[in-house]
Amino acid sequence: MHEDRIRWNEKYSSREASGSGPAEIVRRFYTLAPKGKALDIAAGTGKNALFLADQGFSVDAVDISDVVLRKIPIHPNLSPICADLDTFDITAERYSLILNLRFLNRRLFPYIREGLAKGGILIFESYLEGPGADYCKSSCRDYLLRDNELLHAFLSLKVLFYQESRIPDQKDFCHKASLVAVKQ
Ligand SMILES: C[S@@+](CC[C@H](N)C(=O)[O-])C[C@H]1O[C@@H](n2cnc3c(N)ncnc32)[C@H](O)[C@@H]1O
C-alpha cells in the first residue's frame, strides 16, 4: 500500500541502519535449510538477509521501503526487491528457506507454503495478540496473530518448532508466536 511506503520510509529516513545481528530464531534454525535460494519477507534493515547471504544463501530481500533497502550494504548473494507484499507474487517451489519476521500479511500464507521447495524451511516469528498487548493500539490489531493461528496456518508443513511466548522487546514486553516448519 502506498501509505505503508510513506510511513516506513519516514521511519527509516530518521534512523541509522541497525548494525545488530540476525534474530535468535534465524541463528538457531537456518542450518536446517538446504543451501539455495532464500526469501526474506519484509526484510527491513536486512540484518537477517545479510546473515544468510554470508552463509552462502542467495537471498531475495523484499520490502516496501526503498529508503531502507538502499541502506543495506551491497552483497553479491543478496538481491534487494522493492515491492508491496499486498500484491507481490512468490514463485512456487523456489525457495529452500523463507523468513517472515515481525511482519504479518495473511494473504501471503498460501504463497509461502507454495513458495517453499521440497525440503525447504519456513522460519516465521511475529507479534501475538494477548492480554496486556497495550504496546499496540486497536488500529493495528489486524497485524497481530491470534492464539494458535500461526500453527494452524502451516499445519500442511511438518512443524518442527512452535512457541507462543511473552518476551522482553526493546520498549515493552511483547507476545510473540514462533514457528519453524519443513515442506515434505
Ligand atoms: C517491523 S519491520 C520488520 C523488519 C524485519 N523483518 C525485522 O524483523 O527486522 C516491518 C517491515 O515491513 C515492511 N513493510 C510494511 N508494509 C509492507 C508492505 N505492504 N510490503 C512490503 N513490506 C512492508 C516495512 O518497510 C518494514 O521494513
Short structural summary:
This protein has helices at residues 2-13, 24-29, 47-54, 66-71, 109-115, 149-153; strands at residues 37-41, 58-63, 78-82, 95-101, 116-127, 158-168, 173-182. With 184 residues, the protein is of the alpha/beta class. The chain binds S-adenosylmethionine.
What is the topological layout?
Blueprint: H1 2-13, H2 24-29, E1 37-41, H3 47-54, E2 58-63, H4 66-71, E3 78-82, E4 95-101, H5 109-115, E5 116-127, H6 149-153, E6 158-168, E7 173-182
Parallel strand pairs: 1-2, 1-4, 2-3, 4-5
Antiparallel strand pairs: 5-7, 6-7
The protein binds S-adenosylmethionine.
Describe this structure in words.
- This protein has 184 residues and is an alpha/beta fold.
- The protein has a single domain (2-182), classed as Rossmann fold, CATH 3.40.50.150.
- It has helices at residues 2-13, 24-29, 47-54, 66-71, 109-115, 149-153; strands at 37-41, 58-63, 78-82, 95-101, 116-127, 158-168, 173-182.
- The chain has a seven-stranded mixed beta sheet.
- Strand 2 (58-63), helix 4 and strand 3 (78-82) form a beta-alpha-beta unit.
- The protein is globular, with a radius of gyration of 16 Å.
- The chain starts with a helix and ends with a strand.
- The model has no long low-confidence stretch (mean pLDDT 91).
- The site of S-adenosylmethionine has 16 residues, from helix 1.
- Residues 1, 4, 8, 42-44, 63-65, 68, 84-86, 101-103 line the site of S-adenosylmethionine.
